[in-house]
Please model this.
Amino acid sequence: MARPNLSRVASGSSRTIVTRYAPSPTGYLHLGHVVNAIYVWGVARAVGAQVLLRIEDHDRIRCRAEYEAALLEDLDWLGFAADMGRDPVLRQSDEPAAYERALEQLRHTAAVYACDCSRKDIGSEHYPGRCRTRKLDERPGRGLRVAIAPGVERFDDLLVGPQEQTPASQCGDLLLRDRDGHWTYQFAVTVDDWRQGVNLVIRGADLLASTGRQLRLGRMLGRSDAPLFLHHPVVEKRPGEKLSKSDGDTGVRDLRRQGMTPSAVIGRAAAECRGWRARPGASG
Model:
């Protein structure tokens, strides 16, 4: 597995280092989630950090209580014990007022506006700002966006290396709440990491392109101490296609039924990533 450079984390020993493991209960755990857990707990124990477990259930349509119960059971079976957020379980859905407060705070520093565009209307990841000047009323059935100004976001990933991203050209104005009234991943995770004291984010390389926009949004909300980031390899079913929660051949529950031990499952997950090589450089 790729080895991160943890010298900058260790040098910040005067402060408490908090990282997080944040699964979404939209399906069962698979080997990709185990890889993330290996990195999260491995790095945390190496630098004396605490691990916060957060259930990211912002998607109220796809999240299920049975999936949450199963992932918690699988984590216990694998031996990944969180330092915080387990008793009681920490869920995004339990604190909706935190996102309302953050939204009101954001209104004081940025242009927040209603948007009635569908994904079909947009047609790509980049939002062209169609509703920015339309002055639509905020009401059910319309999303909320925040205007993103041009500019470069630079950060030094602990594994991938120096990065430059331009959120305005990469994704355009960020969606904060969708047309169904659900807080988006980009907004919820940025708010949560700040208010929960997460200063070391360890996640899959498939989320590397989200980092610049989250750093920008964090500053717009008032966060002055940007977290460190480490983006690790993801397990791919085939080149360019990561695992999904429907992959029965790599699901933790299926591997358990096949008689595999926790150490064997962890070993298989680690082996899946040995051939990965980090590619430094820009990501949009």
